[in-house]
């Protein structure tokens, strides 16, 4: 299936089209058993449908970590997609999970809040590894209770937002082609942050008048230049700009926020709960990702913090399989915006979970994450 057919099919909710790829699992697998509990970690190589380029990296594959948690005959699966920006990789995530296997092995998963808190205490960094543990425990808990995770969190699946579809940095000709192929999605997110920004947006606008979200991924380092670019983007049908400048340039970002003619969203600037109060007056909205914050529990708490402080909120993602994307989707009725398309970029997704119809996220109503094999 070529990219055009795939995107159209995915837009119609056809994630069945994803190719099964369990055989592509790498050879690294760790297991522990004690009593009725077993925990396995598995590094898996996601093959991308097209080279994915942002200001940070360019790649044709991503290695992610799965955690398979089994207890009392119920199994839960979690995924972590390590973020290069934070110097994480799959081996490091696996080592982090391995370091707490004895503790997981002897813990009561119905007390998952205590278990996750202990993981956060024992493991430094390795947020994707923590996310994989958290998601596996949440999947297990949902199955134990017999409810889908959105129901566990008290959310209405009909409140799930529309997701955008992301267009990575490319030549104008390929950008135009990608935009045409994303016809099923009503909102696009355009990656910028290089000297080619104007020609990228011009290429997009030559083929669509859809609303655009723009993500500079910290790419603009001069605040005056950033202000001019945002002013220009405000005349191009752009609805907000994400992380226009480097995460630690808070004073420049505040200056930019005071002048910006578009709402600004923080992503790389917002990683931990303590970051959120510092970003009042710097951004209008914040982007949360399970791999950045350490899982569903932490993300739920941070979204509530952000809402209480007056921020709009978004759930975003890394390039991931349907395991991680579905976990985020179960929390998506909480947020104003969704950028949960990472699984649509993958050619060998081993799972099916959340689907997308005309951009609308449709949550599975099976217990836990509600995943099926692809
Ligand atoms: Mg971003």
Summarize the structure.
This protein is an alpha/beta fold.
Summary keywords:
single chain, 374 residues, alpha/beta, Enolase-like, domain 1, TIM Barrel, 2 domains, eight-stranded parallel sheet, four-stranded antiparallel sheet, 14 helices, 16 strands, 34% helix, globular, binds magnesium ion
Word description of this protein:
By secondary structure, the protein is α/β, with parallel strands linked by helices. 34% of the residues lie in helices and 23% in strands. It contains 14 helices and 16 strands. It has helices at 3-11, 90-99, 101-105, 112-122, 127-145, 149-152, 172-181, 197-205, 223-233, 250-259, 275-278, 290-293, 296-308, 322-331; strands at 25-34, 37-53, 58-71, 74-80, 165-167, 188-191, 212-215, 238-242, 264-266, 285-288, 312-315, 337-338, 351-352, 355-357, 360-362, 372-373. The chain has an eight-stranded parallel sheet. Strands 1-2-3-4 form a four-stranded antiparallel sheet, with helices on both faces. A two-stranded antiparallel sheet has the order 13-16. A hairpin with a 2-residue loop joins strand 3 (58-71) and strand 4 (74-80). Helix 2 crosses helix 5 (127-145). The longest helix is centred in the middle third of the chain and has 19 residues, at 127-145. It is globular and about 60 Å long. The two termini are 16 Å apart. The model is unreliable at 1-27 (pLDDT under 50). It binds magnesium ion.
